[in-house]
Write a structure and sequence with these properties.
Layout lengths: L4 E6 L6 E11 L4 E6 L11 E5 L2 E6 L6 E5 L5 H14 L18 H23 L9 H28 L17 H25 L11 H26 L4 H28 L8 H20 L6 H20 L18 E4 L3 H27 L6 H23 L4 E4 L3 E4 L2 E4 L5 E5 L2 E5 L5 E3 L4 H17 L1
Antiparallel strand pairs: 1-2, 1-4, 2-3, 3-6, 4-5, 7-8, 8-9, 9-10, 11-12, 12-13
Helix pairs in contact: 2-5, 2-6, 3-4, 3-5, 4-5, 4-6, 4-7, 5-6, 6-7, 6-8, 6-9, 9-10
Length: 483
């Protein structure tokens, strides 16, 4: 019996009948389902009928001489989810006739089990290497980044425990229940519950993974370091979370690509928001960490809400674009400062001159490209799952080609990030690298950039337009003449 048929079996009879379903609609604000059939029962049974869906009795009631049947799922919070689940089952395609061919124990597949443990870590490491490329001036030690990654993974256990406790504290704190079966009207309430029960515990746990160790190390001496360690902790958290999802999904292609190109970067972006505040406290100790954590938790709650409420799923792509933009803005701001010595307080000053460099248009094209390629990869995985195809040579060629293009777009994104050359009384800063005026031995212009020579090595500032490099050269000449 296919799930798109309605089976009705009398309580005192051993036979059953199947009526074809025309459509299914929710009723009574989502508590009930109205099922419309293509035929009318001429002689309704006198006995109440048991209505079974997917092998479970969901209601027992009388059937009238009508082409429709309304099933009540109760009045509690769980009734919305039961009705929504039944609606999905009834609207799914009819299964073909099935025949039992045999039964036996499925042999263990150790290769799949090992891959389910390794692949989530590799995916998170790939995104981590992408973010670390932005920290080129003074890269953080790999061992400290790796330790933060591991602490972020461990924080998933803490967050899961808090979420479990909250959801069992009250039925009104259960996110799945408060979507009212995915109804659009419940979106504001779902946003609040997802933010409180999921967003705050998860972002708080990830913050603890970055703050507990890396933040207290002497290597944490640049504003951009906050983003690096915030992302490292978040990606460790995502890896641990994906181990569970990959196990449940049996490494389904759609699960892998969706998690790799949606959930994992989303975790990364959420961590970058409060990570920026973590690094900015080096410059401005009064920076409110709580505000940035709450913003991150709210966006996290919005992301989960869009995935859980019907007709809002497409907004996750819009939110990804918003998160990408926020990440770029925060990263550019963090790279306006270089190393800050321990104990120094370097307040923002209106006397700092910023000169915009790079090509925003070229960068925007790379940003659009990387999103389009990610969408293509997700679509490829969904197609192979929907058509029930095994991973074959065609899939490997198509997938590998898209991944190569994705890597090229990521490289272009990093290389063309528009940055600012910042000049103040202390020196010049570009891309997180600072050269004090006393260190500058000279500079010259070449191929749309300015090269500064110092004992710390050359600092290439650019590329930029003729106007930008001319202005920069004039400022450098003016300051070096005074020093």
């Amino acid at each position: 019996m296919g799930p798109s048929k309605l089976a009705k079996a009398p309580r005192r009879a051993c036979h059953s009948s199947i009526l074809p379903i025309a459509r299914v609609e929710t009723a009574r604000h989502g508590h009930d389902l109205s099922i419309f059939t293509t035929v009318t029962m001429r002689s309704p049974p006198k006995e109440p009928l048991a209505i079974a869906i997917a092998g479970k009795v969901v209601a027992i009631q009388r059937v009238e001489n009508s082409p429709s049947l309304t099933i009540s799922f109760g009045n509690d919070l769980d009734s919305f989810a039961r009705a929504d689940r039944a609606k999905q089952l009834l609207e799914s395609p009819t299964l073909p006739p099935l025949t039992k061919m045999g039964a036996g124990a499925v042999p263990p597949r150790w290769g799949v089990a090992v891959l389910g443990l390794i692949l989530p870590v590799l995916l998170s490491m790939g995104w981590l290497s992408f973010v670390r490329r932005f920290d080129r001036a003074r890269p953080e030690p790999a061992w400290l980044v790796g330790t933060t990654f591991a602490l972020g993974g461990a924080s998933a256990i803490l967050a899961g425990s808090v979420e479990y406790g909250l959801t069992h504290l009250s039925p009104y704190l259960h996110p799945a229940r408060m979507t009212f079966g995915g109804q659009l009207i419940a979106a504001p309430l779902a946003l609040l519950v997802f933010t409180v029960v999921v967003g705050i515990p998860e972002e708080g746990a990830k913050w603890l993974g970055a703050w507990s160790f890396a933040r207290h190390r002497s290597e944490f001496d640049e504003p951009v370091d906050g983003i690096v360690y915030g992302v490292a902790s978040s990606l460790g958290f995502a890896a641990m979370e994906n181990i569970r999802y990959f196990a449940w999904g049996r490494l389904a292609t759609s699960v892998i690509v969706l998690r790799a190109f949606t959930s994992v970067p989303a975790h990364m972006f959420f961590g970058a928001i409060w990570g920026y505040a973590l690094g900015r406290k080096l410059v401005s100790p009064k920076t409110s960490m709580l505000k940035f954590l709450l913003v991150s938790a709210l966006l996290h709650g919005a992301y989960d809400t869009f995935l859980s409420v019907h007709h809002l799923e497409s907004l996750t792509l819009v939110l990804h674009l918003v998160l990408t933009s926020i990440f770029i803005v925060l990263l550019r701001r963090a790279l306006r400062r270089g190393v800050i010595a321990t104990g120094d307080v370097v307040p923002e000053s209106s006397r700092r001159l910023s000169i915009a460099l790079g090509s925003p248009l070229v960068f925007a094209l790379w940003a659009v490209s990387i999103h389009l390629i990610a969408v293509a990869i997700v679509a490829l995985g969904l197609y192979f799952d929907a058509t029930h195809q095994r991973v074959n040579l065609a899939f490997l060629i198509a997938g590998s080609s898209l991944l190569v293009l994705f890597g090229a777009a990521a490289h272009g994104l990093v290389a063309t990030l528009p940055l600012e050359a910042v000049i103040d009384e202390n020196g010049v800063t570009f891309g997180g690298a600072t050269r004090a005026w006393s260190e500058i031995q000279g500079f010259f212009g070449e191929a749309f950039e300015i090269v500064i020579h110092s004992p710390a090595g050359p600092l290439h500032i650019g590329p930029g337009s003729d106007d930008a490099t001319t202005t920069l050269a004039a400022c450098l000449a003016s300051y070096t003449a005074r020093s």
